[in-house]
Each structure stands twice: as C-alpha cells, then as structure tokens.
Amino acid sequence: MGLLDSFEKGLERAVNGAFAKTFRSGVQPVEIASALRREADTKAAVVSRDRIIAPNDYVVHLASDDAQRMHALGGALTDELLGLMTSHATAQGYSFAGPLSIHLEADEKLTTGTVHVDSGSVQGKVSWQGVVEVGGRRHPLTKARTVIGRGSDADVTISDAGSSRKHAEILWDGERALLRDLGSTNGTKIDGQKIREAALPPETTFMIGRTDLTFRVVPVAGRDDATRAMGTIS
C-alpha cells in the first residue's frame, strides 16, 4: 500500500468511520485531508540536506453548506486532521517552522463539494531542539552530554534489563549529535551493528538492549508562540 493510500485509509478509519452519517452529500472529510496533504507536498521546500520545511498554517476554504456540516462536528474533525497531518509530516521527513494550525472557513464563491487550501509558514520565535524518542515519549537534549541507561541517575532512564546503568551517551552541540557507548555489557547498535562511537543524523534509530530509540531534531516555539497544535472551524 502506497503512502497516499495508507494516509487516506487511515483518515477513513479515524474520521469517516465516526462521522459517515453526517456527510451523505457534499465534501467528505477524506477529501479535506487529501487536499491538505497535497498542499503540504507541493509547498514543502528543502532548506538543507537533512531538513525539509512544510507550511505550518493551513486555511481550508469550503462552500457554505459544507462548512456548516463541518462546524457541527466542533473540534473533533480538526483534531483528527491535525493528527493525520502530523503523522504525514513525520513519514515524509517534514519539519514545521512553528505550531501546526488548520482553519476551516466558509467561502461563498465555492460550490458544494469543492475544497481549496491556502497555506503559509508562520515562524515566530522558533529554535531547533534535539530529542531522543523512546516508546513514543520525547526527551529533550537540554545538555551537551545526555546519559541513557537503566540507572535512576541516567538522564534518560529506560526499563530494559539488557541495558547497563549508564549504557550510552549522546553529545549534542545544537547542530550535530554523536552517540557513544559507555562500555556497556551488551553494546549499543545502529542497523544491527555494535558501535563504540557514531554520528547521529536526524531520524536515526539505535538499540540499547531490546529498546529502540530514535534521535530527532524538532522545531520548538518560543514563549510568545503557541506551544501546541491548533485548529478551528469558522
């Protein structure tokens, strides 16, 4: 199954399954999601070898009657769209310059069943943060040296009997990361191979014991910006 197919199938399960009775005619939620995905793919720009920036602010224009049907769902639809767009960005390796925002608006110029999407990037005060992700939880790399292991004194503690108390460390200078094994019993692996020391490009997954960890570089909004995704229907 291709990426588009899996994206749309995911939306059909998450959105259409819950709201199918609401939409017997006019635009369908899956069409809105597909339009958002196409807009992100079209406007995504490569800014460096390891970074692709996609728009983070989207306005979905709908015919008045379609917008009314969407409005009846409150925030449920935009919550689903935000989640699916976030997943799509992760799968494609996109980064956002700020919090992801999706707004649905009525447009009297459009006919029923028509979707038009405008997008842009709202940067605000954004910096880039290295994180290590374990089991879906992200641990920011706030220090130059972050120790990972089973011990309670590790900066990132993992519950894995196959790991040492201080198993490995990540050195992060704000731009580049280095993974170093700390003489662990079972070793640290990248792509199944034990390493003593190795560069960590963004989106690299490594293994400690039986635990997979992933190094990522993510945008972080400043204090004056929203720190979570937003979505509205108007």
Task: Describe, in short, the structure shown.
The protein is built from 4 helices and 18 strands. It is α+β, with helices and mostly antiparallel strands. The strands form 4 sheets. The protein has a 6-stranded antiparallel β-sheet with strand order 8-7-17-16-13-14, with no helix packed on it.
What does this protein structure show overall?
With 234 residues, the chain is α+β, with helices and mostly antiparallel strands. It has two domains: 118 residues, 2-Layer Sandwich (hypothetical protein PF0899 fold), CATH 3.30.2320; 96 residues, Sandwich (Tumour Suppressor Smad4), CATH 2.60.200.20. It is 24% helix and 38% strand. The chain is built from four helices and 18 strands. A hairpin with a 4-residue loop joins strand 11 and strand 12. Helix 1 packs antiparallel against helix 2, helix 1 runs antiparallel to helix 4 and helix 2 runs parallel beside helix 4. The radius of gyration is 21 Å and the shape is elongated.
Keywords:
disordered N terminus; Cell_Proc_Reg/RNA_Proc; 24% helix; FhaA_N; alpha+beta; five-stranded mixed sheet; disordered C terminus; six-stranded antiparallel sheet; elongated; 234 residues; Tumour Suppressor Smad4; hypothetical protein PF0899 fold; phosphoprotein; 2 domains
